[in-house]
Amino acid sequence: MELTPPLLRLREVAAGYGAVTAVQGVNLAVPEGAIVALLGANGAGKTTVLRIIAGAMDPWQGTVSFSGREIQGRDPDWIARQGIAHVPEGRELFPLLTVRDNLRLGAYCRPDRAAIGRDLERVYGYFPALKERAKQRAGYLSGGEQQMLAIGRALMARPRLILLDEPSLGLSPLLVTEIFDIIRQLNQTEQVAMLLVEQNAFLALPIARHGYVMAAGRIVLDASPERLLGSGAIQQWYRGAKQ
Is 217 left (phi over 0), alpha (psi -120 to 50) or beta? Predict the structure, then answer.
């Protein structure tokens, strides 16, 4: 019996595209204020899980509960207003808008308009490079700066949960280290929960409280980061996935 229900819980979730099953029997939980890593190779179903949570895709079966309330099948706008922010793979910024305007769009559903300016400065505090480029079009930013902007835009919504899809994608090792340091800092300082989708287990697990590994649309490993890394299960799984 759970004393404290998780902030997010998926139970027996299945979904797909047309007649093709993408995920099946997915069960996972994200505690309040925790980072949870969802790992796996390309095509494992990780992004589909995030799309279901964010409301961009309806599950065929199963439930998605957020703060004790089922949210599957609801519109993305409604889900965002409940406190879930999605940082998608590829960032999906508005390239012709300025950095500042992209950030302000993250707060579109907030009723407390007077506080948005203060939160903008708060985001600049985490990402000084964005303040320097506030009037620059987002399409001219480097890959690392665009990833910072995508995370900053999510923060502007004041979410309780951030869905992060492959934040290391396409970045240099130095920038990846910087981005993951910021993710850890945001989690600790803002107490915002995160579901972190990554291919690189050795980046994600050290900052996570719990880890799941997906393969062929199913959860195949489910344990603490220490157990996953210490047992050699991750290494064995990656070797098997590449064969």
Answer: left
Q: Which of 115, 132, 153 is the last residue of a domain?
A: 153
Burial of 153 (C-beta count, 10 Å sphere; 0-12/13-18/19+): buried
Nearest to 86 by CA among 176, 196, 221, 11: 196
**pLDDT tens digits along 145-204:** 999 999 999 999 999 999 999 998 888 888 899 999 999 999 999 999 999 999 888 899
Residues 34 and 148 both lie in one domain:
no
Q: Per residue in 9-35, pLDDT tens?
A: 999 999 999 999 999 999 999 999 999
**pTM confidence score:** 0.92
Domain extent, residue 123, equals 95-153
Q: Which of 87, 106, 122 is nearest to 130 (CA)?
A: 122
CATH number for the domain that contains residue 20: 3.40.50.300
Supply the DSSP symbol for 28: E
Rounded Cα gap, residues 171 and 167, in angstroms: 9
What are the strands, taking DSSP E only, across 50-178? 61-66, 69-70, 84-87, 161-165
Q: Are residues 68 and 176 in the same domain?
A: yes
